Amino acid sequence: QLQLVESGGGLVQPGGSLRLSCSASGDRLDSWSIGWFRLAPGKERQREGVSCITESGGLTDYADSVKGRFIISKNNAKNTAYLQMNNLKSEDAGIYYCAADYSPSACPNYRNAERTWAYWGQGTQVTVSS
């Protein structure tokens, strides 16, 4: 069974940067696609797919709202995925979760808020405020 633990959240000023980590245990991360999701304040019922990376790390995708500012990556040797967030805006605030799934359909459908993912982390809070 795969366990995921996010870290790296915190308080940052608009325009600042954070790097979120998603550390995996229990299995090799190179078998799993990783998605990053967020729940915005006041929109806790609306899961937003932020980014996704396939098991090999060969394919990535980003929500339009973060494209050009966020970078997803994966270090399979360290069994960790990352989300580098630059030029943060107030609307980026929320709880960020990483999730893992082994299905080839995971990343192509990560924007589907109804799609079930196999494993989830506990989330890390990101606050963007001056």
Kindly describe this structure.
0% of the residues lie in helices and 46% in strands. A hairpin with a 6-residue loop joins strand 5 and strand 6 (60-62). The chain has no helices and 11 strands. The chain starts with a strand and ends with a strand. It has 130 residues and is mainly β. Strands 2, 4, 5, 6, 9, 10 and 11 form a 7-stranded mixed beta sheet that branches. A 4-stranded antiparallel beta sheet has the order 1-3-8-7, with no helix packed on it.
In short:
This protein has strands spanning 3-7, 10-12, 18-25, 33-39, 47-53, 60-62, 70-75, 80-85, 94-101, 119-120, 124-128.
Blueprint (SSEs and pairs):
Layout (H helix, E strand, L loop, with lengths): L2 E5 L2 E3 L5 E8 L7 E7 L7 E7 L6 E3 L7 E6 L4 E6 L8 E8 L17 E2 L3 E5 L2
Parallel strand pairs: 2-11
Antiparallel strand pairs: 1-3, 3-8, 4-5, 4-9, 5-6, 7-8, 9-10, 9-11
